[in-house]
Amino acid sequence: MPRTAALKPEQVPADSKPTLDAFTKNIGFTPNMMATFAQSPIAFNSWAILLGSLSKALDVKTRDSIGLAVSEVNGCNYCLTVHSFTAEHMAKLAADEIILARKGHANDPKRDAAVQFARKVIETRGNVTDADLKAVREAGYTDANVMEIVALVAMYSLTNFFNNVFDPEKDFPAVTPAGSI
């Protein structure tokens, strides 16, 4: 059950309104997470800027796979529904690839290295080993790419933690619980 209400359009703070309106236009509706997050223009707009910047990092399949892996580790059911939906409809990942990403892997060897590394970053709170770093570099990722992976882990963790704290009503199709995959 939500721990705070999603804002109605007339309740959105003026400083959050342009950002929320842009998301609503692009997505076609206002997700409950965003209508809740918009209560803090500082936090909401900062996240939106980070999201926009990181949407240029890596490729969409890798970004969504990282989002799925991180959300699985962080136990964020809201984000799992969002990333499962976007992975299917935007990244065009097959259902088995979505499940694989939630487990921290991918069919593509290069993407697999990125997703495994991202999972290790979140599980170890960044205390990865030299071997972990070597593996992602050997898969073809530059240090700049590795920094982007770390930034994606942090950004996805922000929304995971936000959603775990405030538990907005789910407005994307439900996914199989983690224990069942």
From TrEMBL:
Stretches of the chain forming a coiled coil according to its record: none
Carboxymuconolactone decarboxylase-like domain sequence ranges: 55-103
NCBIfam families for the chain: ahpD_dom
UniProt name for this protein: Carboxymuconolactone decarboxylase-like domain-containing protein
